[in-house]
Recover the amino acids of this structure.
């Protein structure tokens, strides 16, 4: 989702980084030990709300000759709500596709370059893995970004 629709839907994105899109956060440091109260998953973004009222968006600014989206969520997101996160880990792979990915999905991807990003989150109730796939012609970013957002202007 592009910045205009993010602003219209969720308010301003907090700025403060050293690149054109603002400050990107470290997944593990941002969520470790926090308690989530809501998770909203769409194809191209995920919004997390914490018990402290903080909101974070995980997304990618789409450009030409690339595609980055949530490929799947493994586990029950309800297991992450209401209990402190005891594990938050980000793992990436650019070498091979997961075994369970269908050939039909691979055919739709840019084959020149791809990056799988796995976000593993766990509470005492269960573990969830969010799988993002990014593919491009090799000249564009395939990264997923985490940013804090604000409802106020």
């Amino acid at each position: 989702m592009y910045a205009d629709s993010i602003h219209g839907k969720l308010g301003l994105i907090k700025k403060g980084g050293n690149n054109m899109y603002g400050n990107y956060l470290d997944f593990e440091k941002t969520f470790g030990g926090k308690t989530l109260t809501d998770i909203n998953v769409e194809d191209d973004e995920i919004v997390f709300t914490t018990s402290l009222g903080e909101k974070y968006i995980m997304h990618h600014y789409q450009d030409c000759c690339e595609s980055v989206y949530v490929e799947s969520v493994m586990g029950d997101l309800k297991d992450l709500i209401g209990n402190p996160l005891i594990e938050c880990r980000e793992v990436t792979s650019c070498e091979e596709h997961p075994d369970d990915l269908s050939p039909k999905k691979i055919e739709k991807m840019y084959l020149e370059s791809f990056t799988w990003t796995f976000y593993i989150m766990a509470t005492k109730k269960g573990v969830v893995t969010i799988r993002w796939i990014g593919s491009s012609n090799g000249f564009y970013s395939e990264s997923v970004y985490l940013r804090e957002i604000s409802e106020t202007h």
Notes: Residues 3-10 form the longest helix (8 residues).
